[in-house]
């Protein structure tokens, strides 16, 4: 039994040593908010190692041992190791979930475009950049023509497929610097940094023509579907004493929306331009 007791204490010592090493490793990697917590936990586990060494030393010196204490030392040390690992896993999952929630707030899950909130944020960011550099910026809103007919005639699942494919189609025609966001059911907004009205119109018209000629192959529909889009464009040129970016972004989005509805009223499948806001 003497060697059994030594073996049990040795096993508990190794488990607790592992817990201490794990705690200090996490302290070295942790952010400022958690570094001290992991450090003190590591110090505590190191100090508790004395409770595992002293019984072994007593057995060697006196041949006296308490088998119950030896038996209990193993689950205690293992629970400490598992507990530290469990806390680490919980914190890692929490951080991962927080990142996932943040990503979901930024991205429209159906189309993979930026969400309405993220689009507003990025538009204001680009406006600030334009004000600093004195450059221009164009904003284009687009809407699918007769989209209600698609949903009513083919079903919403086909409408969702069209929205997803339209986003992919639009991204293929936009530049790397352009920002595409979904702001409503079938409404999208494109922010084009360092782009004036003429350049913005060329981008919008190229996209309109591409969508018009594109065949949307939906699995549940026997033949490719063809849709058109109406687009409204406005632009912004940075000047001295510029207004607040939040105010300007609201004006730009309103004017792009007005221009888009003008395109609808004028027969659809076209690009209309609204003058830059004063």
Structure description:
This protein is α+β, with helices and mostly antiparallel strands and 278 residues long. It folds into two domains: 2-106, no CATH class; 116-273, Alpha-Beta Plaits. The protein has helices spanning 2-29, 32-48, 50-62, 67-106, 116-133, 147-154, 156-173, 197-213, 245-265; strands at 136-144, 179-182, 187-193, 229-237, 271-273. A five-stranded mixed beta sheet has the order 2-3-1-4-5, with helices on both faces. A hairpin with a 4-residue loop joins strand 2 and strand 3 (187-193). Helix 1 packs antiparallel against helix 3 (50-62) and helix 1 (2-29) runs parallel beside helix 4. The longest helix has 40 residues, at 67-106. The N and C termini lie far apart (92 Å).
Structural class: alpha+beta
Helix and strand string, N-terminal first? HHHHHEHHEEHEHE
Distance between the termini: 92 Å
User: What's the structural domain tally?
Assistant: 2
CATH class of the largest domain: Alpha Beta
Please list the strands of the largest sheet in the order they lie side by side.
2-3-1-4-5
The overall pLDDT average reads 86
